[in-house]
Write a structure and sequence with these properties.
Elements (H helix, E strand, L loop, with lengths): L2 E6 L3 H4 L1 H12 L5 E6 L5 H11 L4 E6 L1 H12 L6 E6 L5 H6 L5 H6 L5 E10 L2 E3 L2 E5 H6 L4 H7 L1 H12 L5 E7 L2 E7 L1 E5 L21 E6 L4 H13 L8 E6 L1 E6 L8 E3 L2 E2 L5 E14 L7
Parallel strand pairs: 1-2, 1-3, 3-4
Antiparallel strand pairs: 5-6, 5-16, 7-10, 7-14, 8-9, 8-13, 10-11, 11-12, 13-16, 14-15
Helix pairs in contact: 3-4, 8-9
């Protein structure tokens, strides 16, 4: 008997999770013999639901929520020997993984494409003792976006993060980062370090156009510019997909590494898939082709 679990964050997407649950259930019940609905009420629920579903060896798990809910669900699968296929119905503020996979950002459209979906392999990352599927941000922006409230996200969407991030980068403060990437070591002064798995970062779908969901690499980009003008020069390059080639950035791809700061007394923060992460140092590695994920049938081959 084919069984699926639908994990829904009812507070995602401006409280629209419950609204789309009915359509998702109706669609999935035509594809599976049994579909169980699990609604999250607190942090950690999605991870627990996914882990339980994997131990039960269900056929598939579908996640309706934002980047945080998706991260939790994949974290619940990451250490299991048997990992069900995973489907995503984007319902959050940024939805980076959904963008990278070519999944429609309109929930109803994403649901309707499920009967014709195909599967692909997806790399995920591990940072210290946790997992990520999108991006690690280190430096001034994580300190700023921690202050973005739920009401701001509902009213402004990803613009709320952009506004707070722009404020943070304009103050001129930077850190000296030590980057140990595979067999290479770099030192770079910067206010922002990003480590991403896919092309879409912070809603910018062309931030790292060379990054693929299954290329087996982590992609690091470091903002080198010190002045506000240097940082502003980077904006059109981010939009056009040329950030990794810009003089104002350091770009490297790697499989495992460590990020630390030279100043021992500096407690630099990280943000992992949109949520507050560990302070530095961070040990990171890629787990290649770790998850089998549903994507639209017409998704172009990478």
């Amino acid at each position: 008997m084919k069984k699926a679990v639908l994990i829904v964050n009812p507070s995602s997407g401006g409280e629209k999770g419950s609204e789309y649950s009915k359509l998702a259930l109706e669609t999935l019940e035509r594809l599976y013999d049994e579909v169980v609905l699990k609604e999250t009420t607190k942090g950690g629920d999605a991870e627990a639901f996914a882990k339980s579903a994997a131990k039960e060896r269900v056929e598939a798990i579908f996640v309706m929520g934002g980047d945080g809910t998706v991260n939790e669900s994949i974290s619940g699968l990451a250490e299991e020997e048997y990992r069900p296929k995973l489907g995503i119905i984007p319902l959050g503020t940024v939805n980076d993984l959904g963008r990278a996979l070519g999944i429609p950002l309109d929930p109803a459209t994403a649901i309707r494409m499920l009967p014709d979906a195909i599967t692909k392999k997806l790399d995920i990352g591990k940072v210290n003792d946790t997992y990520f599927v999108d991006v690690i941000a280190i430096g001034k922006i994580p300190e700023a976006v921690k202050n973005v409230g739920a009401d701001q996200k509902t009213r402004l969407g990803s613009l709320a993060y952009f506004i707070e991030g722009a404020k943070a980068l304009s103050d001129g403060q930077s850190y000296t980062f030590k980057l140990e990437l595979d067999d290479e070591v770099y030192e770079q002064e910067s206010s922002l370090v990003l480590i991403a798995l896919t092309n879409s970062v912070g809603g910018f779908e062309n931030m790292l156009p060379h990054a693929k969901i299954d290329d087996g690499y982590l992609h690091l980009i470091v903002l080198k510019g010190k002045t506000l003008m240097d940082k502003l020069k980077l904006v059109p390059k981010i939009v056009s997909g040329n950030a990794s080639d810009a003089n104002e950035t350091l770009y490297k791809k790697f499989k495992s590494g460590k990020v630390s700061v030279s100043e021992e007394d500096n407690q630099v923060m990280s943000n992992i898939d949109g949520d507050e992460g560990d302070k530095l140092p961070l040990n990171v590695q890629v787990l290649p082709s770790h998850i089998t994920i549903f994507v639209p049938k017409d998704t172009k081959e990478e």
